[in-house]
Design a protein that fits this description.
The chain is mainly alpha-helical. It has one domain. It has 15 helices and no strands. α3 packs parallel to α5.
Length: 438
């Protein structure tokens, strides 16, 4: 990774006009190099899985994973994000927040795994074997949350090279799993679910062990938990609602449409996620800084966001054009079964730009202590997305899911920037009133 880091750092410095010693520059480069490395691995992983499982089995796997993704953010009750927030402001409290995160992840992970398995049995098509639901749910709802907790821990201490490293390791481990079942001539959904579970066990063990090795042992600060449950719950609801309008369409498409259509649509959406990686890397590196800049209010965190937004938006706009133009190449890579993915990708091509716009309003709101308002907007859009899917998917299959995704992300961007504008106007009104009184 080092051989790529220096050129990437210099490129980032030229783009930002900053210094090589800038923590944000270093952390963004670490995340970007890690994410690019992860992308290379995931490209092979995605192609191997999509080609060998086919749209039907791939669609079934994505449907189960989508249910787990909706429930998963409630595991830990936002303790990982609370760790990032508090440690970013005071590094001395890390051990207590790390201990609380592990405790909350274990205790809530078991509960929500059970709920997700029961819910999945009712929400998903009966053609998906129960064993698949159990294996994938336990992997994503319980085991993967320890990987996530480890990444939050390194992010809280702004050790982004380790966050990126865990990302790459997890993708490589899962690629090894799908490669193993192909070599064993068992490219079935059941074989993949078993390999998926085993690889996730390994990833979670390495993630927790890495934090213990590099950052130290955890301590329990139980007295901190009750007072922060509400804010943590806001974080959880926000993350879950984010997942709902990103992933609920895949579960609903599997139920209201067909697994084949779900596989085609999920493949296109996966490519959108890939295109968004550089912006996601920047947001991850900048996340602790939003809390530091937001200590004195939204104006500070929003001013920080506005310094980063123009170049991120320019990249996303260029990527939208590239996705639209390059869409016909997808069936060549994934196989003729995915020929409809070309049209799906073109419908979704604007999403990286729209996501960039709403994330650069959302993170400043969180950083300034307005997580509740951000959560309200996200939950509202999640409900809007579900209603739109119920109307459009039965009529237009995966096209309806694509239209709903674009409309939902667009609405969220408008709501979040609207909330930010209202809050700033109110603060300015208060300041002017105080000046008049004085």
């Amino acid at each position: 990774m080092t051989c790529f880091a220096n050129p990437a750092r210099q490129l980032w410095i030229r783009i930002r006009g900053g210094s090589a010693s800038s923590p944000l520059a270093r952390n963004t480069v670490s995340m970007l190099v890690g994410q690019v490395s992860r992308l290379v691995v995931q490209a092979f992983y995605f192609v191997l899985m999509a080609r060998n499982l086919g749209p039907h089995q791939y669609g079934a796997f994505v449907a189960v994973a989508a249910v787990a993704a909706i429930v998963g953010p409630f595991v830990g009750c936002g303790s990982g994000l609370l760790m990032v927030k508090n440690v970013a402001r005071d590094a001395s409290v890390f051990a207590e927040y790390w201990g609380n995160t592990l405790l909350m992840t274990l205790s809530t992970g078991v509960l929500f795994s059970f709920l997700a398995i029961v819910g999945g049995a009712f929400a998903l098509p009966g053609s998906i074997p129960p064993a698949i639901i159990v294996l994938v749910t336990i992997s994503d709802v319980l085991l993967w949350r320890f990987v996530e907790a480890g990444m939050w821990a390194f992010q809280a201490r702004e050790r982004m090279e380790w966050t990126a490293g865990l990302n790459v390791f997890s993708s490589a481990t899962r690629m090894a799993g799908i490669a193993a079942i192909i070599l064993l001539h068992r490219p079935t959904l059941m074989a993949w679910a078993v390999a998926y579970a085993i690889s996730t066990i390994l990833c979670s063990t390495v993630a927790v062990g890495s934090v213990l090795w590099k950052l130290g042992a955890p301590k329990l600060g139980l007295e901190k938990i009750p007072g922060e449950l509400r804010e943590g719950f806001y974080f959880s609801i926000g993350l879950s609602s984010l997942t709902i309008y990103n992933d609920i369409d895949k579960t609903m498409l599997a139920r209201l449409g067909t697994l084949d259509a779900n596989g085609v649509y999920a493949a296109a959406y996966r490519l959108i996620d890939v295109a968004f990686v550089p912006v996601r890397s920047l947001l991850a590196a900048a996340y602790p800084a939003f809390f530091r800049n937001g200590q004195d209010g939204l104006s500070g965190s929003l001013a920080f966001a506005k310094r980063l937004l123009p170049r991120a938006a320019a990249y996303s706009a260029a990527m939208a054009i590239a996705l639209f133009v390059a869409a016909p190449m997808v069936p060549w890579a994934l196989g003729y079964q995915y020929d409809r993915t070309t049209e799906a990708l073109r419908w979704l091509a604007l999403l990286p730009l729209i996501k960039t716009l709403h994330y650069f309003a959302a993170d400043p709101l969180s950083g300034a202590g307005h997580q509740g308002l951000r959560t309200f907007a996200q939950v509202s859009v999640a409900l809007f997305n579900v209603g739109l899917n119920l109307w459009l998917i039965p009529l237009y299959s995966w096209r309806g899911a694509a239209w709903s995704s674009v409309a939902s992300d667009g609405l969220l961007a408008l709501m979040l920037w609207g909330c930010a504008a209202i809050l700033l106007r109110r603060r300015q009104t208060v300041i002017e009133a105080r000046e008049i009184v004085a």
